[in-house]
Specification:
It is built from eight helices and two strands. With 221 residues, the protein is mostly helical. The chain has a domain of 128 residues. A hairpin with a 4-residue loop joins strand 1 and strand 2. Helix 2 packs antiparallel against helix 8. The protein is elongated.
Length: 221
């Protein structure tokens, strides 16, 4: 009985020893795929894990900042258009895009008529229907007082596009960072496990003669 107890205790100790020195590659991959740095901490690569985690926090902060600045730019150009043109700030996005391309609705309507003439021919039914369907109604009319006003509006809108692009870049880098962290950690843990098992040997086999279990542990220098 004492021999069996000693055997079990020794067996548990050796199993725990191996378990503490080797890591699950799948867990390491999954942890870092979800939160970069988590897999590194799991495999006790604390410096690498800290760098990955700090990088992730920086990327998230950048993404939040760019999204907030994008919203601020949208509010700015809507407010500017409302102040200069007297329009509501709840207009559709297509409308704000249209007023950035033409000084006034008259210029826009002239462009509509030219397109209709080129496609249908002047004075035809198709021409009249096209002009009627696409001309700006009176309640949606606008008129920038100067090209300087229009240019300022365009500049404000361009900030929105810039921040949207920055946010897209940050999102892309985050995805790459997650993939890199996961793959890198999985490779590192697999390499670590191989080095450990090359140095440590642990075998368990039945002892039919004594009706027990034999085990062996070796260390290669």
């Amino acid at each position: 009985m004492k021999k069996l107890t000693f055997t079990l205790i020794t067996l548990v100790f050796l199993v725990n020893l191996v378990a503490e020195k080797t890591f699950s590659t799948k867990k390491a991959f999954l942890f870092s795929a979800v939160v970069p740095g988590a897999g590194e901490f799991y495999t006790r690569s604390y410096v690498k894990g800290s760098v990955s985690l700090i990088t992730e926090i920086a990327l998230i902060s950048s993404l939040v900042y760019f999204n907030n600045e994008q919203d601020r730019a949208v509010n700015s150009y809507k407010k500017y258009a409302s102040t200069k043109l007297g329009i509501n700030q709840d207009m559709e996005d297509d409308y704000y895009k249209t007023i950035a391309s033409f000084v006034s609705n008259r210029q826009y309507d002239e462009n509509v008529r030219l397109n209709a003439q080129n496609y249908y021919g002047y004075g035809t039914i198709g021409y009249n229907d096209f002009v009627t369907a696409n001309s700006i109604s009176e309640e949606l009319a606008w008129d920038w007082e100067s090209t300087a006003q229009l240019q300022k509006y365009k500049d404000i809108r361009s900030r929105k596009q810039d921040y949207r692009q920055y946010a897209s870049i940050a999102s892309g880098i985050m995805i790459v960072h997650h993939i890199y962290s996961a793959v890198s950690t999985a490779i590192s843990s697999k390499s670590h496990n191989k080095k450990f098992t090359d140095k440590h040997t642990f075998d368990v086999y039945p002892d039919y003669t004594n009706q027990g279990v034999n085990f062996s542990y070796g260390y290669n220098f």
